[in-house]
Amino acid sequence: MMQKLSIKTNNKVELIDITTKVQNAVKEAGLDSGLVEIYIPHTTAAVTINENADPDVKADIKKEINKIVPFDDNYSHLEGNSAAHIKSSLFGVNQSIIVENKKLLLGTWQGIYFCEFDGPRSRNIYLKIIRD
Amino acid sequence: MMQKLSIKTNNKVELIDITTKVQNAVKEAGLDSGLVEIYIPHTTAAVTINENADPDVKADIKKEINKIVPFDDNYSHLEGNSAAHIKSSLFGVNQSIIVENKKLLLGTWQGIYFCEFDGPRSRNIYLKIIRD
Amino acid sequence: MMQKLSIKTNNKVELIDITTKVQNAVKEAGLDSGLVEIYIPHTTAAVTINENADPDVKADIKKEINKIVPFDDNYSHLEGNSAAHIKSSLFGVNQSIIVENKKLLLGTWQGIYFCEFDGPRSRNIYLKIIRD
């Protein structure tokens, strides 16, 4: 069983909390116990799990990854978005989360973030349910 | 089937070999063949797979990740542990490992490491068994 | 069901497109719908998903990761390949990809790359099929 979510991003680099969307999709699929795989079918975006309490954490993640992988660094790729491709490989395009009693088994402070590294764009997110 | 392991970390940044703990949990679960998902429910920790022969590799990984993501870099998050959050997203909070004949199918030199980036703390590790 | 692929790498740092090999293995396994886990049993290699259209993207990824993790940086590990170990943890040794209608559900521009960080060497890739 595969589901597709769509989102619109509004900035060049942006972390968007998709926890509720994923939780709702798991509920709609009627999954009691298993795994949900979140897969991003893009090469200049990613998905990560991190704190969803203080928004300053998101701001610091964005600022620091932009420093680790500078937007301009004599890249060869003519589209000008090589930094976004590299960030995608560093954060990764998939995450697997355990589901128990119909709920995502996240830690207390964890949220799921879609990571836009070359926006704004229309993006897709694939979800795959693995039942016990 | 979900299992929870607990560990205590002793340093601010620390890599702790959890291979034997995971192997024992797989054995106790009676899993012959399938996958085990290792999931860290924390936002300032991670799990990685790397060499478990020469302890210098662990030391080099710690030193270099501390350099790539400095402890202090004009971060906004007032808790002062933004570097740990960023390292968590770079290494990732989950790993899936193949199980065959009741054994983790790791490479010859591979071990599984819990990565503490903001210790010392008491930490949890979730394990999810996916049977063939 | 577990399959093993073998490849030879030719350079110290190299990204090798293995998409067709993985697609063929999925077809041979007769998988209609499920997940395929790609697992690298090495500590100085990785697997990533990124653009497979313009080869300059591969070149930029290699150049930038070599800059983020320098080959020499007063590492302790006497084998001299600590940079490769660190790159392996940053990119990761596994990826899970959704399979629908016997096909890898990759995005339009996505390919699967074996990442060699300490070649040239003979390397293995494990594939694990998870059926719906």
TrEMBL record, chains A, B, C:
Top-rank lineage group of the source organism: Bacteria
Coiled coil: none
Pfam families: YjbQ (PF01894)
UniProt cross-references to InterPro entries, sorted A to Z: UPF0047_YjbQ-like (IPR001602), YjbQ-like_sf (IPR035917)
PANTHER family linked to this entry: UNCHARACTERIZED PROTEIN YJBQ-RELATED, UPF0047 PROTEIN C4A8.02C
NCBIfam families recorded: TIGR00149_YjbQ
Family, as annotated: Belongs to the UPF0047 family.
Protein name: Secondary thiamine-phosphate synthase enzyme
Organism: Halanaerobium saccharolyticum
